[in-house]
Design goal:
Blueprint: E1 49-59, H1 62-70, H2 75-79, E2 83-94, E3 99-104, H3 110-117, E4 125-130, E5 133-134, H4 140-150, E6 151-154, H5 166-176, H6 181-194, H7 210-223, E7 228-232, H8 240-257, E8 260-265, H9 268-274, E9 277-282, E10 285-290, H10 292-297, H11 302-308, H12 313-316, H13 319-322, E11 328-331, H14 335-344, E12 351-354, E13 360-364, H15 366-375, E14 387-389, H16 398-403, E15 408-411, E16 417-421, H17 423-431, E17 445-446
Parallel strand pairs: 3-8, 3-9, 6-7, 7-8, 11-12, 11-17, 14-15
Antiparallel strand pairs: 1-2, 1-4, 4-5, 9-10, 12-13, 15-16
Helix pairs in contact: 5-6, 5-7, 6-7
Bound molecules: adenosine-5'-triphosphate (ATP) and magnesium ion.
The site of adenosine-5'-triphosphate has 12 residues, from strand 2 and helix 3.
Length: about 450
């Protein structure tokens, strides 16, 4: 091909607009860490929670029932014998700093599980390890001691004292721990500030809305400064909008607090919104543990699949989840030299022009690329690349996609092109996981060779 003017006049480093400015969901190691706090007086343990073959059976002959369950009996068979198997063979490994959601229908055993995690309910069999210490082997006194130092609880119905001020309510946990008055008021005031209730210290709970009362409940738990926060249906009594707001606040708070949060809910959308990982329970058993994405795309069984089929995928899935990793790219400098190679490739696709670092600076539309190949014309480089971060939810991409003539450019934290999303791909992914093929193994096809 002859010489062409491959000009990208005055190309800015970042072209187009950045859509979907949603924050990156903190997950595990990528989060900013606060210093590890030490629990229970031991130097090297941190507050993670682990369960091993944990069972809780209510009613007659619980040990026998566990043996039957271990032998493969179904819960329905057990129930007829006057016993209820509330938790069956729970094996969980909850990581430090994660928001771990236990999700299941009413009666699936969530609260029973939680009450064994904090030692309020003795296990029928199996172990609960908190920061490596075997809670199930402790005396009541030891268990209480461990609980106080490591765990705080937020309840569904706020559990506020109507005749105490907001501040005194927030300080209550510290009061029963014997913390002196000045100290507990200081800590409670700080916790109220964290939950957005500064200025309300002297009010009575009755003067507060439901959402605010639950924030007092949360402040009470935070004031105790424990590593682990247990929340049983903590937002379930709130109106939908306030509930959504509380979910956002908790996620926001968690970015700096970095607690280990064990959150119980029967609401799948809530689970997917706030959970780093989710455990799905049914009839006392944990059917699957995974990220929202893992559960949506690889349900462990028919139950989980059916359970999750109505989830709003556009809220849960991110650009990174659905992008095409096989974008054709070429560096601006190599464009001329590489064009024959690009043109010879089968199919005429959009070509992204990137700078030396791999950041998108322009795009050659599929039509233009086709015209250039067939008609020998110079392809037009359009500078209007619309960039979106990998963490953007699908929901946030629709407007950008509709407004752009080209696929969206998905960029990583350093602004480098990591994949692309065409309108078809976006619509397919929003409707059905199967329409969004995932092939993380395949890297971007580097038409630019060594140039980047
Ligand atoms: N103290 C108890 N004595 C007997 N059975 C119990 C007891 N506590 C719970 N159960 C039974 O254990 C099963 C699990 O109850 P659990 O309260 O853990 O469920 P859950 O998932 O928290 O439900 P919900 O969403 O309604 O709070 C249920 O069948 C329940 O009736
Ligand atoms: Mg419950």
């Amino acid at each position: 091909m002859g010489a062409r003017a491959w000009e990208i006049p005055g190309c800015p480093r970042r072209a187009g607009t950045v859509a979907g400015s949603e924050r990156r969901r903190g997950s595990g190691p990528s989060r900013g860490r606060v210093p590890r706090r030490i629990i229970a007086g031991t130097e090297d343990t941190v507050a993670t929670v682990k369960t091993e073959k944990l069972y809780k059976v209510f009613g007659r002959n619980p040990e026998k029932v566990v043996a039957a369950l271990e032998g493969g009996a179904a819960r329905s068979e057990i129930d007829t014998g006057g016993a209820t198997a509330a938790v069956v063979d729970a094996n969980l490994d909850i990581r430090e700093g994660e928001t771990f959601v236990v999700m299941g229908l009413s009666g699936s055993g969530k609260s029973t599980l939680l009450r064994m995690l904090n030692g309020l309910l003795p296990a029928t069999s199996g172990r609960v390890l908190v920061g490596g210490e075997d809670l199930t082997a402790m005396s009541d006194h030891e268990a209480r001691h461990l609980r106080r130092r490591t765990m705080s609880m937020v309840f569904q119905h706020f559990a506020l004292f109507p005749h105490r001020t907001v501040l005194d309510n927030a300080a209550y946990g510290l009061q029963i721990q014997g913390v002196d008055k000045a100290d507990r008021r200081r800590k409670a005031a700080r916790a109220l500030e964290l939950t957005g209730l500064a200025g309300w210290e002297d009010h009575m709970p009755g003067q507060l809305s439901g959402g605010m009362q639950q924030r007092v409940g949360l402040a009470r738990a935070l004031a105790a400064e424990t590593d682990i926060l247990l929340m049983d249906e903590a937002f379930s009594a709130l109106d939908p909008l306030i509930r959504r707001d509380m979910q956002d606040q908790l996620t926001e708070l968690q970015k700096t607090l970095n607690k280990t949060i064990i959150f119980i809910t029967h609401d799948l959308d809530e689970a997917m919104r706030i959970g780093d990982r989710i455990a799905i329970m049914r009839d006392g058993r944990i059917e699957q543990v995974g990220t929202a994405r893992e559960i949506l795309d690889s349900p462990a069984n028919a139950y989980v699949q059916e359970f999750t089929q109505d989830v709003d995928r556009t809220r849960v899935l991110t650009a990174e989840n659905v992008m095409d990793r096989q974008a054709v790219t070429v560096t601006a400098a190599a464009l001329d030299a590489k064009w024959d190679e690009i043109a010879a490739a089968p199919g005429h696709r959009t070509v992204f022009v990137v700078d030396e670092s791999g950041r998108p600076v322009g795009v050659i539309g599929a039509d233009s690329a086709h015209g250039a190949v067939v008609g020998g014309r110079a392809p037009t480089v359009d500078r209007d690349v619309v960039e979106v971060p990998e963490s953007a939810s699908l929901r946030s991409l629709f407007r950008s996609s509709a407004a752009s003539d080209h696929p969206l450019a998905v960029v990583d934290d350093a602004g480098r092109l990591s994949g692309t999303i065409s309108q078809d791909r976006l619509l397919g992914a929003a409707g059905d996981a199967a329409a969004a093929p995932q092939d993380p193994a395949k890297d971007i096809v580097e038409a630019s060779g060594a140039a980047s």
